[in-house]
Specification:
two-stranded antiparallel sheet, alpha+beta, helicase, three-stranded antiparallel sheet
Length: 169
């Protein structure tokens, strides 16, 4: 039995060389260098350009999606900042009007001119601009405005009205 051939021994000369990876080359060019793990049988020529697969056509698609998502986040952030600026301006106008009305109410018994002058000064010191000032009996009613830039190039005005006078019982 020692002279009998085993099937594995008979096919040893027919075995294929291990699969080699081929570096990318232009059609008709010769790949040079030995690829590790191969038998080094020599240069390999490409006969056809590599086929374009569906995954090759989709390259870069995730980058575009990521940019779109980033743009959405920036837009939402800008919208939130604009809403916050508008609310802050409205609150600032209300504070300026309240304090201006209180300042005017302290001078209302003297005359209307002194009351409105004091209201305009205090309203201006609080970042507002006096639009209207009138006396309703002993009450001072003023309207103040504050300008706000919601977005670059988009300026709006927030207004508020306040009334102040003596305590009624």
């Amino acid at each position: 039995m020692s002279g009998a051939k085993r099937p594995a021994d008979t096919d040893a000369h027919r075995r294929r060389a291990p699969h080699r990876t081929v570096p990318d080359t232009a059609p008709g060019q010769v790949a040079t260098g030995r690829v590790p793990g191969t038998s080094g049988l020599g240069p390999v020529r490409r006969r056809h350009p590599p086929a374009v697969t569906a995954s090759d056509r989709d390259r870069g698609g995730a980058s575009v999606c990521l940019l779109a998502v980033g743009l959405v986040f920036v837009m939402v952030g800008m919208f939130g900042a604009a809403v916050g600026a508008a609310r802050t301006a409205r609150q600032q106008a209300a504070v300026a009007a309240d304090l201006g009305a209180l300042a005017g109410a302290g001078r209302a018994p003297a005359d209307a001119e002194a009351a409105c002058s004091a209201a305009a000064e205090i309203t201006g010191r609080n970042g507002g601009r006096l639009l209207d000032c009138r006396l309703d009996g002993l009450d001072v009613v003023i309207t103040a405005e504050v300008g706000v830039a919601l977005l670059p190039g988009l300026t709006r005005v927030a207004t508020a009205t306040a009334r102040a006078g003596p305590l009624r019982s």
